[in-house]
Amino acid sequence: MRAFDFSPLFRSTIGFDRLPRLLDNARGFDEAPAYPPYNIEKTGEDAYRLTMAVAGFAESDLAITIKDNALIVTGRQPAAAEGRNYIHRGIAGRAFERRFELADFITVEGAALENGLLHVELRRVIPEAMKPRRVAIAVGAGPQAVPANAPANAIGSDSRAA
């Protein structure tokens, strides 16, 4: 893989503090652990589901946290019971931590553990202030301010009709 130097870009930008961290994290994906396996699926226009195979883990052994736009799923099993003598132990019960970088405005809706699969529901929720809005065009008058809390159908309506 070729190494790119993004430092000239960062010298002329302000407020893109997450960008260098995202690029550094992307570089490390080649060495990312493969345990536990997971799927990411798009379940709707702004809805996603993360499914992780966590066989052998109870709900109390798992933790889901969000920190700095990162979803962190950790699993820690209690110490194995004394006196067990395994002939073959193929079910991985080792501790893990998986990190997923979340885009802006992605929120966790909930999580469920079912048949050894952990399902985490995610949704993109764009704030009203970030959504597109129409601006009224006045004829023969100066610019008119559009109130931020005006209903969408009122914005762009002819204010001279009143």
Summarize it.
The protein has helices at 7-11, 18-27; strands spanning 38-44, 47-53, 62-67, 70-75, 96-101, 106-114, 117-124.
Please explain how this structure is put together.
The chain has helices at residues 7-11, 18-27, and strands at residues 38-44, 47-53, 62-67, 70-75, 96-101, 106-114, 117-124. The protein has 162 residues and is mostly beta strands. It folds into two domains: 35-80 and 89-129, Immunoglobulin-like (Sandwich); 132-162, no CATH class. The chain has a four-stranded antiparallel β-sheet with strand order 1-2-7-6, with no helix packed on it. The protein has a three-stranded antiparallel β-sheet with strand order 3-4-5, with no helix packed on it. Residues 155-162 have low confidence and may be disordered.
Tags for this model:
mainly beta; three-stranded antiparallel sheet; 2 domains; 162 residues; disordered C terminus; 9% helix; Immunoglobulin-like; single chain
Layout of helices and strands:
Elements lengths: L6 H5 L6 H10 L10 E7 L2 E7 L8 E6 L2 E6 L20 E6 L4 E9 L2 E8 L38
What is the CATH C-level name of the largest domain? Mainly Beta
Order of helices and strands: HHEEEEEEE
- Tell the overall outline: elongated
Q: Tally of extended strands?
A: 7
How would you write the strand order of the largest sheet? Answer: 1-2-7-6
